[in-house]
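hey so i finally got around to running the thing on that chain from the lab meeting. sorry it took forever, my laptop kept dying and i had to restart like 3 times. anyway pasting the input first so we r on the same page abt which one it is
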Amino acid sequence: MNRKLYKTKDWLYDQYWILNKSQILIAKECKTSKNVISYQMRKLNIPTRSASEAGKISFEMGRSVSHLTKENRYKITGKNNHLWTGENGSDETKRSYVRSHNEKYKYCEFCGRGNCKISFCFDHYKGKHTRNIKNYKQLCDKCHFNRDYYEFGIHTKTNNHKSNFNLVCECGVNFKDLDEAKKMILESKKINAFATKFQIYSKDQIKDSKNYDFLKSIMLDYDNIKELYQYGKKIKQEVFFSCMFEESIDWCNSLNIKYGKIRFFDKNNYSLLWKAFLSGNKYFISTNYFIPFRTNFIPLFCIPKYPSSIKDYILPNNIFYQGISDHTKDIILLEKTIKEKRLNYFEKHVKLSGTTPIENDWSITFKELEEVLKRSKL
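ok and heres what got predicted. didnt touch it at all, straight out
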């Protein structure tokens, strides 16, 4: 074909109006641009179609579905469209197809976080991108990064994946009275810990303990919980509690305490878990295996040995866990967790300097903890 034919009025008119070709198609056949054809038509005073006329002709020739109603558009979309590429399309085409056909979830499929940007992560185990919706997971940015980086070694880290390390100071039963407990809350504040945690237990739960008398003397009732929480609120330090019986959850709810904890030995106490879920507050759960998540549960990887060894903490390569509940004596696991920037939460048992509490074998002082944080520049 003579490339200059588009400069002839009769030829260009016939191509456009008689053969119903678009300006883009004419330009492609003449190996030029659409702007050139448009210019020549204006120059030669050849009228052009309206948008609706162009849409109808495109539809008749199988090139467009823009003028169709949503109810009828499906008839020539997908595999019915002549432009369908199937599995031969680009990776971005396949991802776009999945996004447009997948049910929209409000929460991340792994961690349960809501109200955050949701992205799709290709399931690398399958080998290649596909249009199969089951081959994709809906993940928040944090879980997307963890899956790519820690499971598959794909370095996709950006400024959106900044470390969000939160230290929880587990005071447990490492105090003799409320004054010492308040001092531990203050020490937690000084080292910028995310929160300070204590335990709420009943007499029945400690009746077989060799330290029964001491544990009974420091057992927290509703008034003690209220006093500690209000003290933390006064100095702007988050305080929450491990709830070991259902009534303790009601106590925390009545005080509007934002967080709570379910210990490892209650991970199968379904009535307690259900009570915590219905509260709507965030609850940390110590566990060492996958449990069906709820949107307000924060799973912590835990080894129920007191003390435990650093060798016991072999964290599985998945993104289920959001933190660690540490029962080791030293600080190696803490430093490793901070360096990796993999987890959001770290629970460490603490004690006051110069004391030898019941949990002394797996606790460190606030001063030791502060030195670790300084070295890590947190």
